[in-house]
Amino acid sequence: RSWEQMVGASLLEIAPATRGAEVLALYATALESGEPFTISDFEYPPGSGRRFHVRTSPAGEGVSVTWHEVH
User: Fold this and answer.
1) What is the DSSP code string of 13-63?
2) For residue 33, which phi and psi values (nearest 5 degrees)?
3) Counting beta carbons within 10 angstroms of the beta carbon of residue 56, is it exposed (0 to 12), middle (13 to 18) or buried (19 or more)?
4) For residue 53, what pLDDT is reported?
5) pLDDT (tens digit, 9 = 90+) per residue, 8-41?
6) Checking DSSP bridges between strand 37-43 and strand 62-70, what pairing results, if any?
């Protein structure tokens, strides 16, 4: 997806396989606590073998999420 398609979109629009995933609970925790968190080795989509470093930080009334693929 392009940058323009992702900015302002919901996570479930961009990455629908995260529905029901542990990572959604962590996003909610970051939002409620105001504390950032990092997942060093997150597989997405499940079973794909693709791994990501995920960082979430509070941003205004929501959270900012960055994903970087690791090899």
Assistant:
1) HH-GGGTT-HHHHHHHHHHHH---EEEEEEESSTTS--EEEEEEEEETTEE
2) -85, -25
3) buried
4) 93
5) 888 788 888 777 777 788 888 888 898 998 988 8
6) unpaired
Query: For residues 1 and 30, what is the distance between their CA atoms, to the nearest angstrom?
Result: 25
Distance separating alpha carbons of residues 6 and 10, to the nearest angstrom: 8
How many beta carbons lie within 10 A of that of residue 65, not counting itself?
17
Radius of gyration of the chain (CA): 12
CB 63 within 8 A of CB 32: no
Indicate the pTM of the whole model. 0.69
SS3 6: helix
Give phi and psi for 25, each to the nearest 5: -65, -35
